[in-house]
Amino acid sequence: xxxxxxxxxxxxxxxxxxxxxxxxxxxxxxxxxxxxxxxxxxxxxxxxxxxxxxxxxxxxxxxxxxxxxxxxxxxxxxxxxxxxxxxxxxxxxxxxxxxxxxxxxxxxxxxxxxxxxxxxxxxxxxxxxxxxxxxxxxxxxxxxxxxxxxxxxxxxxxxxxxxxxxxxxxxxxxxxxxxxxxxxxxxxxxxxxxxxxxxxxxxxxxxxxxxxxxxx
Length: 216
Description:
Layout: E1 3-8, E2 13-18, H1 22-31, E3 38-42, E4 45-50, H2 53-72, E5 78-79, E6 84-87, E7 92-95, E8 98-101, H3 105-108, E9 124-128, H4 138-143, E10 148-152, E11 157-162, E12 168-171, H5 185-195, H6 197-214
Parallel strand pairs: 9-10
Antiparallel strand pairs: 1-2, 2-4, 3-4, 3-7, 5-8, 6-7, 8-9, 10-11, 11-12
Helix pairs in contact: 2-6, 5-6
């Protein structure tokens, strides 16, 4: 029997199911509407999260910032967004808000499917955690060899890097995108309210173009 624990906040809805088999998880993945849910699986414990509008807006905008930054800096990436990453042998899987291959972009370019038993995990995963996840995911990310995780809590962005011992340590800045202005995230969300998303991204592009030119 699967035990179900509903977890609600004013922002979004989460359900945790315990004693879930891999086959049950696989079926849920195949039947899910990825536009409306994110599913994480950790050795029999499954979380289904329905993101709020605020959650989706935050993830999408930070994703646009990443893509704008890498375009301006001429950094090749492979955007894999909320692709389902999973490995049956370690009994873990996740769907991020945004995810990217950067150092390993060339290794996955052109692949119709990514097999984590053969290919590397994403270099960067973004997770918006406004409602606070009930399922800690660092064990999932470590098992699936995610290099770096960005967690956005609604007021700040925190960066965690996978260490050689398999643990994630918080660091002040990104290792995969070392010049990305992590500390400026709150400022750019204020700009959304002032200017709207498109004009805010244009302003961010202008800033990063100027910064890039100044170091050349």
